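Recall that a protein's primary structure is simply its ordered list of amino acids. Everything else, from secondary elements to tertiary packing, is in principle encoded there. The following example makes that idea concrete.
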Amino acid sequence: MAAPKKGRSAGAQSKPWRALALILIAIVALTGGMFASGHTTPRLGIDLAGGTSITLEARSGQESAINKTNMDTAVEIMHRRVNGLGVSEAEVQTLGRENIIVNIPRGTNSEEARDQVGTTAKLYFRPVLQSQVGAAATPTPSDTPSTGSSGSTSPSPTNSDGETSSDSASPSTSPTSQGRAVTDALKADPTPSTSTSESAKATDGASPSASADADIQVLQAKFAALDCTDPKQRAEAGKGKSTEPVVACGEDNGGWSKFMLGPVGVDGTDVTKAEAILDTTTGAGWKVVMDFNSGGGDKFAEITGQLAGQTSPMNEFAIVLDDEVVSHPYVNSAVTGGKAEISGNFTQEEAQNLANMLSYGALPLTFTEASVTTVSPVLGGDQLEAGLIAGAIGLALVVIYLLVYYRGLSLIAIVSLLVSGTLTYLIMSLLGPAIGFALNLPAVCGAIVAIGITADSFIVYFERVRDEIREGRSLRPAVERAWPRARRTILVSDFVSFLAAAVLFVVTVDKVQGFAFTLGLTTLLDVVVVFLFTKPLLTILARSKFFASGHTWSGLDPKRLGAQPPLRRTRRPAATADPKEA
């Protein structure tokens, strides 16, 4: 067996160029991803970049309903709603007894978020009695997705354009069969619980009271006169008691449609969960799956069983949010088991928006917009400038200390800090479009604190190397022997910092989470930089004459460090022969 070569330890046989190439590839890949995403700067939070501030005022028929419990519930739902749109760093908090403030950072889709947050009325499911596509069109069954029990979906019949086909039915003073069915549904039972033929028989066999006739005529007159393209009429539509039929508007295929709706069949609070799912088994595309509580499941099974026997559009139910119809799927069959799914050529965005409304639409209180203001980024810009100045001063002091104390070694630390800063910037720029991360002022503070944590890791390693030189070893074996001891210390220190950041992120909210997130991210990057850049770079420079010879300005001068002379074995003098013994 060949003996190992002298002067070359196992630890010294590392290949530092591979580690440097790896971190270089990572920087190039992140840079390419940043430019490909079109976001070359980190997103800024509302305290730095400005944004939209919405003040909502709670409304309730019962004064006692406006209490801390309901307000906290509303805050939580709104917070999840805006974050469900990818609007990170949005602040949702109570102000006083009956107001909620929502701050949406600049650079996000604030208009969409404002629509979602402002849509704070309760969510209802109402049966459709009559519908009309367009402002002045003849009432027609509307283009709707379908709903069925979980696991089964029946797509709507489509025309040549791929849209759901519909048949027109024109109302007149002499009611058609559809009109008679609507009339009977309103007279006999608020929900359309009878089929069209049965309703027609009931109409032929009994005369409604004069007051009922008057109510029906008033409702049908409102439906005929409603113009959903008029913002004023649209704002007044849909209002009414939950036990009474109403006329309402809804945006449908880029235009506005109007609906005559029966009383509320199921309350939105009965929906426990709703999510958008891509159906890959049947090829039905995106769909929305809903779960109901036990009471809601029973009511939904009953009403869908009644609607399934009707003719279009009376086999539809409308999902009404803030007095506006957001969807009106038709029913194939009774939906039992407390689960339902809505499908019908949804895009991913449409399915997710509908699921978001179903999940977070049922608030315990109703809210109106008291004010909407734009927050100027001037103050935030001043704060950011002050924070950057503070960071620059801190970085300059660290660099000066390294230059004075470590001399040539300080160049390795400075370059490592630049690499760490570059990685931090690239990742933060990518996290903006990826997860909605926004850089706020506390997050900037976290990045400043990270400068000290990163510099501390370099100092630990440098001191271990200098200790080895003090013991009389040359530079190359000192670099390799010092690494295991320094590595263990660095990992323990960074683990403690990361654990503190993780705990802080979990137990806090809003801006403080930005500080914790940035601190945790930079701590992880510290480990990456030390392992893949600082140590390999020092290994390579240890082979250069400037550092290996212990130049005075290298920071590794044995005389300056008070190194002990190398330990050498001395030979014993040869024993002289004793003539007596001879």
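The two ends are 43 Å apart (CA to CA). The chain has three domains: 17-44+378-561, 50-117, 121-361.
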